[in-house]
Amino acid sequence: MANTAPQTASPGTAMAIAPExxxxxxxxxxxxxxxxxxGQLLAAAGCTDPAYAASMAAxxxxxxxxxxxxVAIPHGMAADRHLVRRNxxxxxxxxDGIEWNPGQRAHLIVGIAAASDEHIAILRRLTRLMxxxxxxxxxxxVTDPAAIIAALGAETPxxxxxxxxDLAERFDWVLDYPTGLHARPATRWVEAARATGARIQVRHxxxxxxxSALIALLQLGLRPGDAITVSAEGRDAxxxxxxxxxxxxxxxxxxxADAAMAARRATTATKGxxxxxxxxxxxxxxxxxxxxxxxxxxxxxxQVAIPDQPLPLAEGGARLEHAIRATRAQLKxxxxxxxxRLGAADAAIFKAQAGLLDxxxxxxxxCQLMVEGHGLAWSWHQAVDRIAGSLSALxxxxxxxxxxxxxxxxxxxxxxxxxxxxxxxxxxxxxxxxILVAEDLSPSDTxxxxxxxxxxxxxxxGGPTSHTAILARTLGVPALVAGGAGLMxxxxxxxxxxxxxxGRLHLDPTEADLSAARSxxxxxxxxxxREAAQRAEPAATRDGTRIEVAANINLPDQAAFxxxxxxxxxxxxxxxxxxxxxxxxxxxxxxFATYRAMIEALxxxxxxxxxLDIGGDKQVPHLRLPVEANPFLxxxxxxxxxxRPDLMEPQLRALYRAAAAGGALSIMFPMxxxxxxxxxxxxxxxxxxxxxxxxxxxxxxxxxxPAAAVQADALAKHVDFFSIGTNDLTQYVLAMDRQNPELAxxxxxxxxxxxxxxxxxVQAAERAGKWTGVCGGLAGEPFGAAxxxxxxxxxxxxxxxxxxxxKAALRGASMDQLQAVAAKALECATADEVRxxxxxxAPAEQAAA
Length: 849
Ligand code: PEP
Ligand code: MG
Description:
Blueprint: E1 22-23, H1 31-44, H2 52-62, E2 66-68, E3 71-72, E4 88-101, E5 104-113, H3 119-130, H4 133-139, H5 145-153, E6 169-174, H6 183-196, E7 199-204, E8 207-210, H7 214-219, E9 227-233, H8 237-250, H9 252-268, E10 280-283, E11 285-288, E12 291-299, H10 313-342, H11 344-357, H12 360-371, H13 376-392, H14 397-417, E13 434-438, H15 443-447, E14 454-459, H16 467-475, E15 479-481, E16 495-499, E17 504-507, H17 511-533, E18 539-540, E19 546-552, H18 559-564, E20 570-574, H19 576-582, H20 588-601, E21 607-610, H21 638-643, H22 645-660, E22 665-669, H23 675-692, E23 699-703, H24 706-710, H25 712-716, E24 721-724, H26 726-734, H27 752-767, E25 771-774, H28 782-791, E26 795-798, H29 803-811, H30 815-827, H31 831-836, H32 838-841, H33 844-847
Parallel strand pairs: 1-4, 3-5, 12-13, 13-14, 14-15, 19-20, 19-26, 20-21, 21-22, 22-23, 23-24, 24-25, 25-26
Antiparallel strand pairs: 2-3, 4-5, 6-9, 7-8, 7-9, 10-17, 11-15, 12-16, 16-17, 18-19
Helix pairs in contact: 1-2, 6-8, 6-11, 10-11, 10-14, 12-13, 13-14, 17-29, 20-22, 22-23, 28-29, 28-30
Bound molecules: phosphoenolpyruvate and magnesium ion.
The site of phosphoenolpyruvate has 10 residues, from strand 20 and helix 26.
């Protein structure tokens, strides 16, 4: 495969700044001119293609590159990395400053050309420099480029830290979580490390962290592709390390699935609201979709002065322990309450926060400061501030989110030490609908918000993966994050429209824009309410054709939620998760118990269980399968099942035993490529069914490779049904890795080539008198579902949350209309043309918008 990325030099040398790339006393007329100048400097020095300037300008539309304190860091779009020939920095010193965004003036503008994550190092230096305002101010008047080069080029002490040594037992691993080591997986690492009883260390380059210390782990700032060495010592170190390895590598599949889903959602998100009148717009990052109108309420972080009142060390230690214990109980209560109101996933945020309280660094630093003679509250506050500060300074949005969590927990403990120190509150909200503007919000503030009063959130810092953003999404409150320090200078009471999709805050909108926004909001709300109200009803087109809508769930305890969302059964139970999550191979009896529990939880509704689909993105470390160069093209799914009877047979026995005990169970095989495979799989089913004495159950296959779609005629003779896996079918038809975030916008299941494969499959099944379902991601998109139904798909299975909107889309048209749109889609040349057909199906009120 051709590698278009230029070579990256080693850290430290990669970002060396040449004097000709520093322009002193530059006087660009505005932001666009500044970006143009930086583009010219970088291109002239051979760092980038001249087109890189346009890419930097495009990035400004998508994100805010103003760092604060007069520093901005324009850089190109990720998709344009091929325009970078070698890493480089160009710097404009603009003494009078230029307006970067409304209310934000940039004086030092650092254009970054980086083919990899090299800019992290420079961000680290910049954020450090920004903490030293005097040095930063000096750089604005210096007349020698060397001063700027020295300030930005100097290595920081922690980068040059002394190399840590590994412990006795070790293994190397390259982190493959697409969003790096963020708090959720890190919490699992900590739990796993503690459960082993051995000492486990994670090293990245010269930095090492104890795997049982959450903050230390997060401070490594691990990004995808980072090579780490994990080592252990102590009792049974080798076995402990093997268990730890199984946990951390076992999390990869879920992390990848989450990231791919997020990328797909981002590219398929409907366009946000566009004001037409003169309006000042502040840009941040959209963190929770939706549109809302309200008056700004600024939550100023009260800089509560923390008194430094020394006290006897023993008393300080005891009070600290008591405060931490009380905070832990408070977080447990919050976890339970949030679990009841918003669900287990959101409640887990507070579990992760409680994990921060166990961090040895936090306790040690507090104690060291008390030993030095400082008071308890002061020492605790300092320790939190130092560690949170070091997390934020890494310039990594994931870690910025953890810093907010740490400060939140820190404030709770402080409130336990002395209630008067608990800090700012939300108790003084003005009357009416409010858009809350804050430097950052704590997860507990966010979880406690009343969404009827607080209709939007805008924070100056934070990232879209912060817990606040996750909670805002669950509460359905539109939010933007990383809006920049200028947010905090806005006038309280200003009327504004917040757009959580585009990440925009439109200030003082005109009456016409307000009225347009109101109708937009009303239409969205009506649509959602209508969909929710009718979620339990069947999905039938206007002329009465029923489409079965089912859920993709993996565990029996997810069934109740799926049914409540309107699921008419389970169209895909991915059994590999039973293997991935437990860290062991579940035996026949425990699988039987799980399948029975699922059948019972579904109260008579049909269940399709997919036999193990291991391989590709779903690696199961404890099976120790051979490493493959191309796992997606390797021994996965049916290919593995046929080679490993020790895996397939207990599963089929458990399934047939479950079927014999009653219920509507079907068996489905993944990743089938040939007739020979189906014949062999069916023979195994028949043999095991006879041995167990079970009734016949429908046996189907997934159609997810082009060979199966093209040969659907031949395959249909041997199966009872097809279920199309559009996630894999898309990746194999388009030859685009389903996990590659860079390709996510193009790896589009609406590509006409994919649609034609689907149509071939459905038609072949119909000719053979068999039915076809779809259980890949396309089934969960309302327009995708409508197209599939128009092509003749009779069952759609999806994430439970998607069910109400999909059912509504199916009810919105007649089968004739769906078939006409599907026929047009098959004739389209591009995915964009297909997407444009959505307008043909838009309900009248949406088309009028
Ligand atoms: C698919 O490929 O579309 C599918 C449903 O299977 P999985 O996502 O589990 O590979
Ligand atoms: Mg698949």
